Amino acid sequence: MATKNNYANLLIDLKRFDESLLLLDEILNINPNFIDAITNKNRLLDSLQKVNLSQSIIESASNSAWSLADPLLMAFTPDEVKRTTSKLTAKVLDKNESTLLKNIPQSTSHELHRDQLKMAEQAVLSKNFNLALKTCTAIYGNCKSDLIGDVYEVAADAYIGLKLFHYAEICYGCAANLKGYSFKHLFNLANLACIRHDIILAKSYASRARDLDSDNPSLIKLIDNLSTMSSQFSFVTDWPSVNIVA
Q1: How many domains does the chain have?
Q2: What is the Cα 26 distance to its own chain's centre?
Q3: pTM over cut 0.85
Q4: Which one, 69, 124, 197, 240, has least CB within 10 Å?
Q5: Coil, helix or strand at residue 202
């Protein structure tokens, strides 16, 4: 419930008001006393009111008729009056839009990025792997460095779901280097190396994973399987060319 509410809050910041309203109504139908959802719905309605106000100003300005009845205006040609009216209208609109922008919460806070990361994790659990990757991409460009390792890990989980094992291995490696090697990192990297028939590397990862959790039944089974396999890995020659300092 809290996760859905956080997602609704994110949708408001992204100005996806219809989606946010549907989600908040769903939450409040289940729990009418959910304070955070009530607060978010009030914020949503306030945002909608401001957007509607801005739209009405635009429509009013575009539909308003100008007149030469004022004696002062009669000293100018109709074209000059119309051009001046348009400039004044533009200034009013600019001021209103500026006010609206100041009142719209910015979606760059650390807390929001953590909420977005939870959304990505939830998307993986829901098997919506493409959404998870899109969310990870959105977070990656703006979040603080302490979250980057988590972003790589969620992306790796999504790539596993899509069976894009090469990308998953890269992302788990990045996550491990940024966060430190956990049992999950080492176990998954061992399995991914095994898929590539790089049994030597897989055994190395598995050995390090055993130091962290020697009784894990899945790891014990993996180590047994690796002991019966021989490495068929070969270094390919068609990698993208890069400049490396030797």
Answers
A1: 2
A2: 22
A3: no
A4: 240
A5: helix
